[in-house]
Each structure stands twice: as structure tokens, then as C-alpha cells.
Amino acid sequence: MDAAGACASVFLRMLSSCLVSVSLSFPLNPMIRPYRTFRDYDAITFLNPILSLDRSAKTLQVLEGSYFSLPRADAPHDVVYPHVWKVRAGFKDNTWARMVVVYAHAFPNLKHLVLDQYTDIRRRMYHPTLIEPVNWTIRRGNRQDQLKYDSWKSLCVVEGTLEAIYSLGLVCKVSELRLKDLVSERTVSHLEAVLQDVEPETLSLLIWGATMFDKGSRLSQLLATSTVHCITSLEMVIHFLESEGDSGIEDILDNIMFRLSALPLRRLELILKLPPIKPFDRKVWELPADDQYQCPAEQYLHEFDFQAYTSRFKATIPTLENISVKHRRCYYWNLVF
Question: Where is the signal peptide (predicted)?
Fold first, then answer.
């Protein structure tokens, strides 16, 4: 249901069938038209899927939606969904708040958690690496709640922005971590904290600039620590900055190879995304044709021997069994996550 309102609330209450999979998209503000037919109590109940779907507590397996309203961590509900293995929840900035133990109590056997953060597009375009200071407070609260009330035991996959996952402050191990936004020098410390939280075997992330692998960078320092020794499978997309469009690709790959050499990787997927030739305010239909090179690096990569470089990677990282190195064009909307 999209923009579910009072009618949807009545429908769910009258529904006699038990649901297996649900997708509910709530309004950001249920008190604006056409949602004013909610009484305060009804709105609180309906916008909380743990309460509104209680008839399907024994059958529900997948819950997806946005702008859920959740109770305080110290007031969990008695409703438990023992068979829910996947939850995908969308929130506006910081509104997930201290919700970890609420979800952990309601969905104790959760295996796959996805957090979609709906941030202002312009904010992400011009400040793609911004993390609000308030998230440290939320993170601390979430960690305290989990230590007091417990966390998940079976969680395997977590997806979301670094900001959202950092705020969760998870105290349980997770085998697969998929970060959806760009990691920069400013947010490496948050990445380190999250890796220490969940100790993933598989990591997927996006890097803001090839210079992140230069000697002395925060990321290079992190890759030299034991924090990353849990990672055996790495999927990494490197977004070149506009100033890196004429950089030496071989030097960049050598840098990356050297920084990753200490990891016990068995699988590596590396994608180089070249900088957009058009600034952010240019129109989509003005983008270059497929046969036009966007920058010197793209022209060089067109004839680059990636197969030879994969062999060099395997020689440098003896544990590697599978490796893929490729490049893609990067249009401006690819920079927004």
C-alpha cells in the first residue's frame, strides 16, 4: 500500500486472511490531508506495523515500508513475529532513533535488515559524506538498549547508509554488510566503528575518490589494522573525483592492490566509476554519447588489459579465488545514494 491512510487502517483491521508479505508506505505526516480522519490513538497504532499487523503475527515473513512509527525502547509490545526473516524500513533523517531493541523484540529471528534513509537529494549531491553529530547520541542509546534488553541472534545481512547503520550501534555479528552511500575521509572513523560492531565476512561499499588509497589516508590506515581481517569477500565501487579524471590508472590500481594485500580476501569485485564530464546542474539529455570519452582516464581504460591486472592481484593476494575488475561511466545521479 502506498501512502496508506485511515482507509487502509480499517482494511487491515477487517482483513480475515493472514499475510505472509506486506509492503506499507505511510505518509510522512499523517495529520495532513487526506489523513486527518485518524484519531491520535489510531494514527499511533496504525503507523506502527508491529501493532497494525498483529493478526498476521504467526504467518508474516517479510515486512517492507516507510515512515513507521515505533515506541520507545523501554516500552516494547507483546506482539512477536517469529517467522519474519526480512524487514525493509524507510525513514527520514534520524527518525529511526532508538529502534533496535523494538525490532529485535518483535522480530527475534530476523536475518535481513534494510534501512532506507530518505534524505534531501540536494543535501546528498553537495554533501555526500555528511553525518550528523546527533547520530553519536542515538548510537550510544541503541548500544545501551541492546546490552540491557538483548539484540538479534540470527541477523545475517544488513544494508543501508553508513549514517543509519552507525546509528544502530549493533552489538551482534553480521556476515554481510552492504553500505549504500559514499565513504569519504570524513566518515572512515564511522566505517571503522561499524566494522568493529558487526565483523562482516562480506563487505560492499562505495569509496569517494581514488585518493582514499593514498599513503597516510585514513582508509589506508584502517586497511592496515586487524579490524578488517574478518573480511573475505569485498565488493568495492570507487567513484573518481572530477580532479582525478586524468589520473594514472595503473598507479591507482597499484595503490589499491597494495592496501588490500593484508586482507585474507577470497573474492574481490572492483568497479572504477569515472567522473562525470557534466556538472550537477546540466540536463540529462546533454550527457555525452556512448562513443565519446568523458576524460583521459576513460580513453585509457578503453584499451586497458584488465585480465593482466587480475593476475597481478592474485599474485599479490594469494588467498584470492575470484576477482573482477571493471569500469563504468558515472553520471551525476550515480553520486546520490
Answer: 1-25
Count CB-CB contacts under 10 A for residue 154.
10
pTM value is 0.84
Per-residue model confidence as pLDDT tens digits over 250-307: 888 889 999 999 999 999 999 988 766 554 444 443 445 555 555 666 666 777 777 8
Q: Is residue 326 part of a domain?
A: yes
The CA–CA distances, whole Å, from 304 to 33, 288, 289, 298 equal 57, 21, 21, 10
List of E strands, 163-274: 176-183, 202-208, 233-239, 267-273
DSSP state of 275: P
Question: 3-state DSSP helix/strand/coil percent for the chain, to nearest 5?
Answer: 35, 20, 45
Q: Is residue 160 within 8 Å of residue 115, measured between CB atoms?
A: yes
Structural domain for 289, as ranges: 201-205+231-337
- Identify which of 294, 292, 290, 296 has the alpha carbon closest to the alpha carbon of residue 252: 296
- Grid cell digits, residue 82: 517469529
